[in-house]
């Protein structure tokens, strides 16, 4: 596949400091399921992430925060600055508490850990509950030049090479880090369901922005504009450029993404997964041959809503590999 006509399709088949917000009501609790992104050098503390607990239950809520047994490098820090793997918190009625999460790993090879942190709940009336929050920790070593030591390229992943060819060896094409953020224009405001379209667009950009932060990029990868004249990347929701049998198309040589009208997807999750993949192609990766990578060339169908969509460890590793290569062909604007 060559130059400006290269297409990447999703086919139809079966940060800076981040605050996660958890609200407790009398009969339920709600959280926005943001991934806590921890990133730093081996032997040093990572950035801090925060979980804000808001008690609207009418009584005291007791919370026990704990890690899974293999995540011994993750710590909870209480209000007195004590760090532990297992801490308990009592939040009075109408009270709030912000829990700090941080990590430290002494040595090893550059790696991304994706897992869950556990929270046991006990209400004043005797009721109990349990939920988990996603955490992603990325550790890297520093070379004498001060650059991140790159993760290896995951097996079964292709990328864009010189002339916009799909390759699996040689120099990759990618953006220079100084090009970020890439400014995105989406024409979804021309169609109905504007809030739903906006949610899909913002979620897809946030997935890559969060991944970029977790691998050490200092700026967002994507930012949205309402002025097409200012855009580096344009997104069209008319469906006119999407080939029959596909859910979306990316054209890296033209910095264009084609999507179907929202009503033609099986839900916001399906639209969001499609858009995450098409945006990913514009960053350099092509398809993975592992079924459950987001960048696999087929639709998974297991994303029920937007909050569940996230990259796999392999997807994040591929992004890290591409953007740690010193020898590359730059994308032009």
TrEMBL record:
Record bears the keyword Signal: yes
Signal peptide: 1-19
UniProt entry keywords in alphabetical sequence: Signal
GO function term, MF aspect, one: metallopeptidase activity
Keyword Signal: yes
Name of this protein: Uncharacterized protein
């Amino acid at each position: 596949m060559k130059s400006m006509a290269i297409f990447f399709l999703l086919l139809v088949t079966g940060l800076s400091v981040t605050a996660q917000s958890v609200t407790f009501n009398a009969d339920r609790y709600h959280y926005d399921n943001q991934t806590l992104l921890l990133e730093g050098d081996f032997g040093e503390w990572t950035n801090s992430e925060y979980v804000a607990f808001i008690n609207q239950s009418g009584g005291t809520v007791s919370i026990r925060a704990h890690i899974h047994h293999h995540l011994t490098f993750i710590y909870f820090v209480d209000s007195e600055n004590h760090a532990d793997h297992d801490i308990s918190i009592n939040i009075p009625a109408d009270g709030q508490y912000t829990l700090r999460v941080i990590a430290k790993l002494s040595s090893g090879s550059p790696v991304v850990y994706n897992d869950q942190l556990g929270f046991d709940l006990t209400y004043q009336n005797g009721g109990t509950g349990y939920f988990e929050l996603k955490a992603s920790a990325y550790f890297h070593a520093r070379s004498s030049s001060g650059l991140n030591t790159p993760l290896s390229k995951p097996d079964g992943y292709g990328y864009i090479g010189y002339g916009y060819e799909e390759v699996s060896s040689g120099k990759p094409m990618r953006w220079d880090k100084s090009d970020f953020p890439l400014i995105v224009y989406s024409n979804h405001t021309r169609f109905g369901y504007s809030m739903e379209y906006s949610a899909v667009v913002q979620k897809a950009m946030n997935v890559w922005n969060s991944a970029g932060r977790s691998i050490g990029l200092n700026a967002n990868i994507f930012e949205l504009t309402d002025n097409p004249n200012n855009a580096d990347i344009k997104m069209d929701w008319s469906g006119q450029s999407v080939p029959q049998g596909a859910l979306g198309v990316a054209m890296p040589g033209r910095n264009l993404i084609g999507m179907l009208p929202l009503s033609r997807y099986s839900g916001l999750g399906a639209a969001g997964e499609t858009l995450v993949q098409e945006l990913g192609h514009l960053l350099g990766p092509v398809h993975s041959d592992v079924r459950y990578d987001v960048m696999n060339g087929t639709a998974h169908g297991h994303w029920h809503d937007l909050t569940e969509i996230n990259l796999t460890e392999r997807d994040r590793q591929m992004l890290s590999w591409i953007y740690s290569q010193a020898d590359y062909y730059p994308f032009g604007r």
